[in-house]
Write a structure and sequence with these properties.
About 40% of the residues lie in helices and about 15% in strands. The protein is α/β, with parallel strands linked by helices and about 625 residues long. The relative contact order is 0.16. Bound molecules: ligand SFD and adenosine monophosphate.
Length: about 625
């Protein structure tokens, strides 16, 4: 057995993750915890400066409500989210974030983030809720604030969290390992924040072979939040509400700036705009089909119908949009100047947040002012913070949550002491970077309160920890023991390496659970087949092998993804209707049903190794 040092850290508050939500929690807890003499510890699998979804930077802040500026109200934001998610939303959570998010944006500005301003000094909006930023260093700035707040002594970078520690139904910590040194970590804590992002590469991506690893959302967010909360015994919600973004094809450049700021059209091979030619289809999805803006999944759906009829490729008409805005600038000289400006903005949009798209433009001699670019629906992702909704079922805030949605502390899930934020908390979509950080702040404050009111020291018996240590490190021993059995260590009768395992998972999900090659369609029969195959995959997970620490991380990433996959399949199966046709389509129940204006939740019961599915009421507050 490989030699591993065991490092034990006892703290009051443990933050698992180092992304937007984690940084918000760090800043907020540091402030309150200092007053109460509490210790706060943060663990990230990567280096905080460039970890998580904002690693490459962003070119917009997608949630700014502008309450003080009188632009919008909290209710306006709730209406927007409710409609976009086809009625399935926790308005108490959405409102709680919305009422605090503007102050987070003002903090970003104070920390040095350049937000675009117009001649009068007002923020430049991309759309109603979105602000334009020069955000290449967005994450570096936010991480700096978090590091200053906590101090580097309390931050563990490159430590991969695998499993929660739970005792008598209460969270008492987490365990993981260093991805650089032979160290096994035990973190004991009175309260834990789970904010380890969403999940990518559960489904087979469009980019395979030489393009593998390219995805819209960060491939390094691999389902840790779902696994952690499920294994802790928490109730999860909206695990069926995956997100399928439409993106610039092959390099995944975002479309928001093109649709909202540049007002570009997307057209099919016949030069038709599917938003117009297919407008009648929206009637079928009323009342949500009739709202403005058209919900993201329905915009997808209209485009998918064109593709299904062979009317692709679909093009973002960048050239048309740029030329139109430039022409409107005035005389020839003014037009030329505007054209240059727009050209720079178009490139910066990608250079700030999806550099690969700028590289693809350069590699394919694409001048956006001259030539349109192809767009396509991506593979499915699990992202509670964007236009998906998957995550833990958490308590709302005391003052506005309906009584069924409140159990003591804002954002605590159904496991005592375990809080969730960002992609990890469900049914509160459209938080994005700013809202995720805000939700982290909300958690931070609530966790300090929890610590003050629950002072028991966290304990866990040695046997439990030892069993976890053995299980987590086992893949290294499996590899060592059997690597000599064949000439090529990739092919071995005794073990499976994580990449091959991941391909197998992705094939199951792609073909049976409504991935790209199934045109996002599935049915009960297909889902049952997926469960049967996932069962066998789960059995083989015991035989995963790792050559080194990096591969050990890959092993556990893929185990995490498998649990995300199973929660997803079970929940799509449970909700026997089609509600988000542009995210997935149940061919055996192709319409929206009135009695499914409800949440589909799930719990995995550790003691019985059984899943329970629960239908919960949707209660609006407006
Ligand atoms: O345009 C472990 N997002 C956008 N938000 C915006 O506000 N504006 C935009 O312009 C956005 N766009 C966008 C966005 C994301 C991406 C990838 C692109 C474009 C290309 C969304 C936001 O980024 C997103 O909402 C938030 O970042 C979510 O915050 P959070 O905290 O839930 O997740 P995170 O930031 O990814 O952080 C996750 C952290 O967990 C760590 N982690 N740590 C320990 N152990 C493990 N096992 C772990 N697993 C993961 C990660 O390292 C990371 O620190 S646009 O397209 O919409
Ligand atoms: P995206 O780049 O697709 O992630 O979009 C960024 C933001 O703009 C998100 O808040 C989207 O919901 C929104 N958005 C993108 N495209 C459209 C559109 N065609 N109509 C309305 N909102 C959009």
């Amino acid at each position: 057995m490989a030699k591993f040092e065991t490092v034990e850290i006892t703290t009051d508050i443990l933050i698992c993750g180092g992304g937007m939500a984690a940084c918000g929690a760090a800043v907020e807890t540091a402030y309150w915890a200092k007053k109460k003499g509490l210790k706060v510890t943060l663990v990230d699998k990567a280096a905080m400066d460039r970890s998580g979804a904002v690693a490459m930077g962003l070119s917009a802040i997608n949630q700014y409500v502008g309450v003080k500026d009188g632009q919008n109200s909290i209710q306006d934001y709730c209406n927007y989210v409710r409609n976009d998610l086809m009625g399935i939303t926790r308005e108490d959570l959405v409102a709680n974030i919305a009422r605090h998010v503007d102050s987070s944006v003002h903090m970003f500005e104070k920390w040095g983030l350049p937000i675009w301003k117009d001649a009068e000094g007002n923020y430049v909006h991309e759309g109603r809720w979105q602000l334009m930023i020069n955000g290449e260093s967005y994450k570096v700035l936010v991480a700096e604030a978090a590091k200053n707040a906590l101090g580097m002594d309390n931050i563990y970078e490159r430590v991969f969290i695998v499993e929660p520690l739970v005792k008598d139904g209460k969270i008492v910590g987490a365990v993981g390992f260093s991805t650089r040194e032979n160290k096994f970590y035990i973190f004991k804590a009175k309260t834990v924040l789970c904010c380890m992002g969403g999940a990518v590469h559960v489904f087979r991506p469009r980019s395979v072979g030489e393009g593998l690893g390219r995805s819209w959302y960060p491939p390094f967010n691999s389902g840790a939040s779902t696994y952690f909360t499920l294994r802790a015994g928490a109730e999860l919600t909206s695990q069926e509400v995956r997100f399928i973004p439409v993106r610039f094809k092959d390099a995944y450049g975002p479309v928001g700036a093109w649709f909202l700021l540049f007002k570009a059209r997307a057209t099919n091979a016949l030069d038709e705009n599917y938003m117009q030619t297919r407008a009648a289809e929206l009637e079928k999805w009323a009342p949500y089909g009739k709202v403005k803006p058209v919900p993201a999944n329905l915009r997808n759906w209209l485009m998918m119908l064109d593709v299904l009829e062979g009317k692709g490729p679909i093009s973002m008409r960048t050239e048309e949009a740029i030329q139109k805005i430039a022409a409107e600038a005035g005389d020839e000289k003014a037009s030329k100047k505007k054209l240059k400006e727009l050209e720079a903005e178009a490139w910066e949009d990608f250079l700030d947040m999806t550099i690969s798209q700028a590289i693809l433009w350069a590699a394919t001699n694409t001048a956006p002012e001259e030539k349109s670019s192809e767009i396509a629906a991506c593979e499915p992702y699990f992202i509670g913070s964007h236009s998906g909704a998957s995550g833990a079922w958490v308590s709302g805030p005391e003052d506005i949550a309906p009584k069924e949605y409140f159990w003591g502390y804002a954002n605590m899930c159904t496991v005592k002491g375990l809080f969730c934020a960002g992609d990890a908390s469900g049914a509160s979509s459209h938080k994005f970077s700013s809202g995720s950080l805000t939700e982290g702040r909300i958690c931070g404050k609530a966790m300090v309160k929890f610590c003050v009111e629950n002072t028991d020291e966290p304990t866990i018996d040695d046997a439990t920890v030892e069993a976890l240590r053995t299980r987590i490190l086992a893949p290294l021993d499996i590899f060592d023991e059997f690597k000599g059995a064949t000439t090529d260590p990739n092919i071995n009768p005794n073990y499976i390496r994580p990449q091959m395992y991941m391909f197998r998972l992705q094939k199951i999900m792609d073909e049976y659970a409504g991935g790209v090659t199934a045109q996002f369609m599935t049915s009960a029969k297909n889902l049952e087949k997926a469960l049967e195959l996932l069962d066998m995959l789960n059995e083989d997970a015991e035989k995963l092998a790792a050559e080194n620490l990096h591969e050990l991380m890959r092993v556990w990433e893929n185990v995490h993804r498998t649990w995300q996959a199973e929660a997803h399949v079970r929940t799509i199966l449970f909700r026997d209707e089609t509600r988000w046709p542009g995210y997935y389509f149940r061919t055996d129940c192709p319409t929206m049903k009135e009695d499914w204006l409800a949440f589909a939740n799930c719990i995995w019961h550790p003691e019985k190794n059984e899943w329970e599915m629960i239908k919960r009421d949707v209660k609006y507050i407006y």
